[in-house]
Design goal:
By secondary structure, this protein is of the alpha/beta class. The chain has helices at about 5-15, 25-30, 35-55, 65-80, 105-120, 130-140, 160-170, 185-195, 200-210, and strands at about 95-100, 120-125, 145-150, 175-180, 195-200. The chain has nine helices and five strands; from the N terminus they run ααααβαβαβαβαβα. The structure holds CO-5-methoxybenzimidazolylcobamide. CO-5-methoxybenzimidazolylcobamide binds next to helix 3, helix 4, helix 5, strand 3 and strand 4.
């Protein structure tokens, strides 16, 4: 195993083991070894999150472990976020972003927002559990070029369609590009709700929107 893949594996393992004390040091080690920050997030810590999710499905982990895994990943993000500058792209514009109503998952959204900021986007983050009315109001107020919505639950992703329908109803849809993201997204879903693009990982998402700039 190369040094890089060994470090990525250790990052993933630390998330699975909920090792909140070790994660900042491991992130520092990854950076020192020349691993780009976005790779440490996506190919390291987020891989561990997939294992955590699987353990939760297998009833090996419970809600307490999900919470702890989220906290552990946030500790790692605190170290890596200032270094999320590795994706080379031109761009700039304004983006309104949020996690849809009923959904409290924000780690992936925050990764996407950090990467956008690193590309000189002005990011207006509405947080989690954002209602269609709040999204539409923010689009009216801030007139962004980009609206980015995140959802991790299959039960909440439908809310994205309500936002787009409301933008259309209020005559705001043509002025903004819409990208939807999160693990349960599919191209078919994005087409069905009338989104301009879909991303199941944050780097992919930033590449897509950079192409629009
Ligand atoms: Co929850 N949870 N969770 N959870 N949680 C999942 C999503 C789940 C898949 C676990 C499982 O069962 N395997 C499952 C959803 C099942 C489903 O809908 N089919 C689930 C469940 C069921 C739940 C609860 C219902 C549990 C309960 O209460 N019984 C509950 C719901 C609460 C709510 O939202 N109303 C719940 C709660 C939580 C915590 C709060 C404890 C915590 C979140 C903490 C937080 O976000 N602050 C949590 C966690 C940590 C997870 C897992 C383990 C990890 C998610 C994560 O942060 N991954 C997750 C299992 C999994 O994902 N395998 C799970 C790391 C992150 C970097 O990845 O968020 O996928 P991700 O983001 C990626 C891409 O998706 C993409 O880029 C990121 C990086 O590449 N991306 C975008 C995301 N948004 C984007 C937007 C873009 C572009 C790309 O543009 C707009």
């Amino acid at each position: 195993m190369s040094e890089r893949s060994e470090i990525l594996q250790r990052l993933s393992d630390a998330i699975v083991e909920l090792d909140i004390d070790a994660i900042p040091r491991l992130c520092e080690e990854a950076l020192e070894a020349g691993v780009p920050a976005h790779e440490a997030v996506i190919d390291g810590m987020a891989k561990g999150m997939e294992v955590v999710g699987q353990k939760y499905e297998d009833s090996e982990y419970y809600l307490a472990e999900l919470i702890m895994a989220g906290e552990t990943m946030k500790e790692g993000m605190a170290v890596l976020e200032p270094h999320l500058r590795a994706v080379e792209m031109k761009s700039a514009g304004r983006c309104v972003i949020g996690t849809v109503k009923g959904d409290l998952h924000d780690i992936g959204k925050n990764v996407f927002a950090s990467l956008l900021k690193a590309q000189n986007y002005e990011v207006i983050d509405l947080g989690v559990d954002v209602s269609p009315e709040q999204f539409v109001e923010a689009v009216r107020e801030h007139e962004p070029q980009l609206l980015a919505m995140s959802a991790l639950l299959t039960t909440t992703m439908g809310g994205m369609g309500s936002v787009i329908a409301e933008l259309e109803r209020q005559g705001l849809r043509d002025g903004v590009k819409v990208i939807v993201g999160g693990a349960p997204m599919t191209q078919e879903f994005a087409e069905e709700i009338g989104a301009d693009a879909v991303a199941t990982d944050a780097v992919m998402g930033v590449r897509i929107v950079s192409g629009w700039a």
